[in-house]
Design goal:
Elements lengths: L18 H10 L4 H6 L3 H25 L14 H15 L2 H18 L11 H15 L2 H14 L14 H14 L7 H19 L22 H8 L6 H16 L25 H15 L2 H17 L11 H15 L2 H23 L16 H10 L14
Length: 413
């Protein structure tokens, strides 16, 4: 397993009041560039990460937009041009640079043209994401006509086929997330409760239908497997359902599903990638403890249940010990895993989790050029994308400027 991640040899968190112990820990490795980064005051480190984020953003735009001749071959947020637009929107939020907003809008328009005939309907991998981001950017730009055009497309053109799966990347949960994104940024009932409610009922009904053979209240299949993770399985679906208006019995189904997952995790504290899997290898957002941890944080926020908080903290320990992956992106890399600590810090206010997020970001910053040059991306074919490559690292660094507001891109609400 260790070939998947670097050993975490960074010093544990030491409160600022114990400066002598902290100074000693840094002095022992004073020649180590990572230790020097960790020893910086937070404001100084934030400015350094911001500078890196801006440099990485320029690199991503050049590689994915400039060198392509401004043509879109992959329009998705996950690995395509819309991910570059989403990164530009994040940069605009962090710096208020109007040029980022204008370029973001230009790329979204190109993605709109490229995705018109697509049957995909989700936020991360479908036309719904194009319309949702386009509408939000148009609102920020004060372009009412463009805002209305994207909203009309979303409401009238996007249809959910009967055989659509239920997971986050390609299924009904992913469509609901696009609805939530619009309602957060445009207005509460931009996508009506009635439309969202119909999809929620379909998801709950399907989950119960497959669960009758299991002890878990809700269960889903994707490509023949009962996945547990955030991208294709229970963690992602439960996360989205918790952002919807649920009936009391549906709330209990969600809680029961999460409790089933907690009860059946590995002895290590990690989570199986799918039902019945005995392979305790993956510690990614898409499969394993990181994605489940983000969902458990959401459950602790929504339900106020200590059981979910404790399970989230336990999953965070797995990520601290095994989460320094040998890739840089959101889905399969260090960038995505860092959001576990940002979410725990946002939930608890415990500065130890901010330190851990900072430590992962420093490790990534320190090793970035080497990892990039070695092609440490998932599959290597989208090295500058948001979820699989350098774009995710830039997005994370922007979020480190305001860590108490940070949200994983798939769960930006």
């Amino acid at each position: 397993m260790a070939d998947r991640y670097f050993p975490n040899e960074m010093p544990p968190y030491l409160p600022e009041t114990t400066t002598a112990a902290s100074d000693e820990a840094v002095t022992e490795t004073s020649k180590d560039s990572l230790a020097k980064l960790l020893s910086l005051p937070y404001y100084t480190l934030s400015e350094r990460l911001k500078t890196s984020a801006l440099e990485l953003k320029r690199m991503v735009v050049m590689e994915t937009w400039g060198l392509s001749g401004k043509r879109v071959h992959d329009y998705t947020i996950y690995t395509g041009a819309l991910g570059t637009a989403y990164l530009l929107f994040k940069a605009y939020q962090a710096t208020n640079n109007e040029n980022d907003l204008k370029l973001c809008s230009e790329i979204v328009k190109a993605c709109d043209s490229a995705s018109r005939d697509s049957g995909r309907v989700t936020f991360i991998c479908g036309h719904a994401g194009v319309c949702a981001l386009g509408a939000v950017v148009a609102k920020h730009a004060g372009d009412e006509r463009l805002l209305d055009r994207y909203l009309t497309q979303f409401k009238e053109k996007i249809k959910l086929p009967s055989d659509l799966p239920y997971e986050l990347l390609y299924g009904r949960a992913g469509f609901l997330w696009a609805c939530s994104f619009l309602n957060k940024h445009i207005g509460k009932e931009t996508i009506s409760t009635a439309r969202r409610r119909a999809v929620v009922e379909e998801i709950i009904k399907a989950g119960k239908r497959l669960a009758h053979r299991d002890k878990c209240p809700l269960m889903y299949e994707w490509h023949g497997k009962k996945y547990w993770g955030a991208a294709h399985g229970l963690a992602g679906i439960m996360h989205v359902l918790m952002d919807m208006e649920l009936k009391p019995n549906e709330i209990e189904d969600v809680k029961g599903t999460l409790r089933y997952m907690i009860k059946n995790r590995f002895p290590s504290g990690n989570y199986p990638s799918s039902e019945g899997s005995e392979s305790d290898r993956l510690v990614h957002w898409c499969h394993g403890a990181p994605g489940v941890a983000l969902t458990l944080v959401k459950a602790a926020e929504v339900f106020g249940d200590h059981e979910f908080l404790q399970a989230a903290l336990d999953a965070g320990e797995v990520v601290w010990n095994r989460g320094l992956l040998k890739r840089v992106g959101m889905c399969h890399g260090i960038s995505g895993n860092t959001y576990v600590f940002l979410s725990l810090y946002r939930l608890t206010g415990n500065v130890e989790y901010l330190y851990r997020a900072r430590a992962f970001a420093c490790f990534l910053h320190d090793r970035a050029q080497k990892l990039i040059s070695e092609g440490k991306m998932h599959g290597g074919d989208r090295p500058y994308s948001l979820f699989e490559g350098v774009g995710g690292m830039a997005y994370l660094f922007f979020d480190m400027i305001e860590p108490s507001e940070a949200r994983f891109p798939a769960y930006e609400l």
